[in-house]
Amino acid sequence: MEMETVRLSQIVMKWFPEMIPFFRQNELNSMIVLRDGLNILEQEDALEIIQYSLCEHQSQAPLH
User: Fold this and answer.
1) N or C: which terminus of the chain carries fewer CB neighbours within 10 A?
2) Number of structural domains found in the chain
3) Is 63 domain-assigned?
4) Does 34 reside within a domain?
5) What is the pLDDT of residue 23?
6) Tens digit of each residue's pLDDT, the chain (64 residues)
7) pTM for this entry
């Protein structure tokens, strides 16, 4: 299987579509590289990717 690059929105829509309103557009547009592609991504792996991505965005946010 080849690596596949997808937007975080594709992962969220596949596994947790009800969560879409809670994301900012820049979070949803984040590019994620999947080692084995989106088709075989499992739900628990998808959740881990989403959590990591949100942590990355929060760590880049400026403090006020």
Assistant:
1) C
2) 1
3) no
4) yes
5) 93
6) 689 999 999 999 999 999 999 999 999 999 999 999 999 999 999 999 999 998 887 776 555 5
7) 0.84
Residue 35 backbone zone (phi > 0: left; psi -120 to 50: alpha; other: beta): alpha
Host domain of residue 25: 2-58
Q: Are 57 and 26 a contacting pair, CB within 8 Å?
A: yes
Contacts of the segment 27-33: beta carbons below 8 A, 24+ positions apart: 27/53, 27/54, 27/57, 30/56, 30/57, 31/5, 31/6, 31/7, 32/5, 32/6, 32/7, 32/8, 33/3, 33/4, 33/5
Output the pLDDT for position 9: 97
